[in-house]
Inverse folding.
């Protein structure tokens, strides 16, 4: 039987744009150290605010 990981034990980061915490996702398994933003919206807001 597979070992289960509880959601409260997953690593978290804070988004630099919205300052909300977001948790690790399976799709980020190989690149978690490189993930900075919680969503595409925050990633795009970062680039648009830098242009102003």
């Amino acid at each position: 039987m597979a070992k289960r990981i509880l959601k409260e034990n997953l690593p978290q980061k804070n988004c630099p744009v919205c300052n909300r915490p977001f948790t690790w996702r399976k799709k980020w398994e190989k690149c978690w150290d490189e993930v900075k933003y919680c969503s595409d919206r925050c990633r795009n807001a970062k680039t648009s605010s830098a242009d102003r």
User: Anything to note?
Assistant: The beta strands are 12-14, 21-23. The chain has a mean pLDDT of 87.
